[in-house]
Amino acid sequence: MSEVGLRIGGKTYMVACGEGEEAQLVKLGNMIDAKLQTMEGNLSAQDAQNLLFAALLLADELDETKDGGGTTDDKSGPTADQLEQLADKIEKCASKLESCLAGA
Fold it and tell me: What is the pTM of this model?
């Protein structure tokens, strides 16, 4: 097991990974840091919230790539239930991030 220091948003986070995964983890950390830098004018005072928004933006970009540009046959969009479930997941992620950062 290895441990890698990721510099994201001006802070270093130590993350454990498997042997040989260090370079990929550093690459992903750099992507998150770059996304945070593009958000500079819109950052909040809470690190966890900033990391969450950066992760959501990256996930959205990935989702659009997987969907071939974000086009779908279903023009109705997400249902209220789906949006509520997504909001719950986002809140849980934010809480976990805040807990992790408070312990760091």
Answer: 0.58
Query: Which comes out higher in pLDDT, residue 88 or 34?
Result: 34
Q: Where in the chain is the domain with CATH 3.30.160?
A: 1-43
pLDDT exceeds cutoff 80 at 5: yes
Q: Are 28 and 15 in contact (CB under 8 A)?
A: no
State how far the alpha carbon of 93 is from the alpha carbons of 5, 23, 80, 86, in Å: 21, 25, 20, 11
CA distance 54 to 48: 10
CATH of domain 1-43: 3.30.160
Q: Which residue has the tokens 């046959």?
A: 73
Rounded distance, CA 57 to CA 37, Å? 12
Report the interhelical angle of 80-103 vs 47-66 (nearest 10°). Answer: 140
Three-class SS of residue 19?
coil
